[in-house]
Amino acid sequence: MIQRDFGLAVKNYRKQLGLSQEKFALSISMDRTYYASVEAGKRNISIQNIDKIAKGLDIALSDLFKYMEEHVIPTR
Fold first, then answer.
1. Is residue 63 within 8 Å of 14, Cβ to Cβ?
2. Which of 29, 38, 46, 76 is buried most deeply by CB count within 10 Å?
């Protein structure tokens, strides 16, 4: 499921920054419970929120999708 794969990619980058879900969500002005549901793969989020997350992680949007292709979705 693409939502789960996206959530795993986001979680990986956030953990590399050493930030908790709460601190990261606050830094990008996103509700913590909403953000947690994104990482859990329970949200089909808008491209605007995907962009907000990528900017907060200081990575390109393409990096998120590249991570998904290389690490999370090898069975597709």
1. no
2. 38
